[in-house]
Design brief:
This protein has a domain at 1-113. Helices cover 50% and strands 7% of the residues. It is built from eleven helices and eight strands. The structure holds protoporphyrin IX containing FE (HEM). It is a single-pass membrane protein. It is found in: Membrane.
Length: 331
């Protein structure tokens, strides 16, 4: 469910409201993500070429990539045809989505943009923006179940802000100070991209007495920085309060807290990511009360992680919702 909420928001921004291939694309990209997240022996021994053949991984990925490419080509074609109808006055103009913006730039020819570039941008936005967001929402919810006093506080805030409307929308998100602190704390303790993206050192240098040769692949451990006792009080404790009055933020200048990275290659989707987390969480907290099945207690919830494209829960989070009486959505 969480997964389809965050994917749905990204898909709506990328393809607009009426795209008929949207769900086919989501299904195809999630299949590809699953495949790439799995363990492959050939990744560990890349020099042993026959391993790649035996695993069949390369063939599978190539096949899926081709299918994926066909779906995006179709989506681009559909957009082009609709834009032509709009221009000739046959159809009323719709609000632009990401594909429209890219096609407009291509038409204006300000700088060369081929269809393959448009396809790459779409793959990038989905690949980088969907799973990171759904993973974070799932961890935030898990942490709130594990720490029920946090859930209570966050839920009270969301219901105070949106109670008069009986529903959640973007207008009140800026008032959700506590929920924002919950999201920051989730990023600190469970960053979805714990080692950021790899860098290559293009000049030999010395850091803390260690010689780093040119061309070394450098991995930055954002997960360890977020739990470093030199910077954080009781780092293993999930405590959103630490962000309520502090000035530490994830904009890439506080190096102890870099869930979106830092520097030139920092996540460019940060301003899209924030509402894409706040909105689903606010909805889930406003419309439902949540509990674990079979009388299970929060402290019994398994919080093991599994490493893939992002660091996710090892087991699915299974929760029982009870509709909230103040919700004006018909359940
Ligand atoms: C919870 C949400 C997200 C998290 C935690 C996250 C985290 C990250 C991180 C850690 C990086 C690598 C930065 C570095 O190594 O310094 C990254 C890169 C990137 N992110 Fe995000 N991201 C999120 C959402 C998004 C969204 C919504 C989009 C697009 C709409 C996006 C697009 C990208 C792209 C294109 C890159 C590659 C940038 C480059 O290589 O120059 N991300 N993200």
């Amino acid at each position: 469910m969480i997964f389809s909420m965050t994917y749905g928001i990204v898909a709506r921004a990328a393809f607009g409201k009426k795209c008929k291939d949207q769900q086919t694309y989501i299904d195809s990209i999630t299949e590809l993500t699953k495949l790439l997240s799995g363990f492959s022996l050939s990744d560990f021994y890349p020099s042993i070429k026959p391993l790649q053949l035996f695993s069949g991984m390369k063939t599978k990925v190539e096949k899926m990539h081709k299918e994926n490419d066909k779906i995006i080509a179709n989506i681009i074609k559909e957009h082009r045809e609709r834009r032509a109808r709009e221009k000739s006055g046959q159809e009323e103009a719709e609000q632009e989505d990401l594909v429209d913006v890219l096609l407009r730039i291509q038409e204006q020819n300000e700088f060369p943009l081929a269809d393959k570039n448009i396809k790459s941008v779409i793959v990038d936005v989905f690949g980088a923006g969907s799973e990171t967001s759904s993973t974070t929402v799932e961890w935030a919810l898990s942490e709130m179940i594990k720490n029920p006093w946090v859930m209570k506080e966050a839920q009270a805030e969301v219901r105070r802000v949106f109670g008069p409307k009986g529903n959640v929308d973007e207008t009140g998100l800026h008032e959700l100070k506590y929920l924002k602190a919950v999201i920051r704390e989730t990023f600190r303790i469970r960053p979805s991209v714990p080692l950021l993206l790899p860098r290559e050192c293009h000049q030999a240098c010395e850091i803390n007495g260690y010689h780093v040769p040119e061309k070394t692949r450098v991995l930055i451990n954002a997960w360890a920085l977020g739990r470093d006792p030199n910077y954080w009080n009781e780092p293993e404790k999930f405590n959103p309060e630490r962000f309520l009055n502090g000035s530490v933020d994830y904009t890439g200048t506080n190096y102890e807290f870099i869930p979106f990275g830092a520097g030139r290659r920092m996540c460019p989707g940060i301003t899209f990511a924030t509402p894409n987390l706040e909105l689903p969480l606010a909805h889930l907290l406003f419309h439902f009360d949540w509990k674990l099945p079979n009388g299970m207690k929060g402290e019994d919830l398994d919080m093991s992680e599994v490493f893939g494209m992002t660091v996710k829960r090892k087991t699915d989070l299974v929760l029982i919702p009870t509709p909230y009486h103040g919700s004006k959505i018909v359940h």
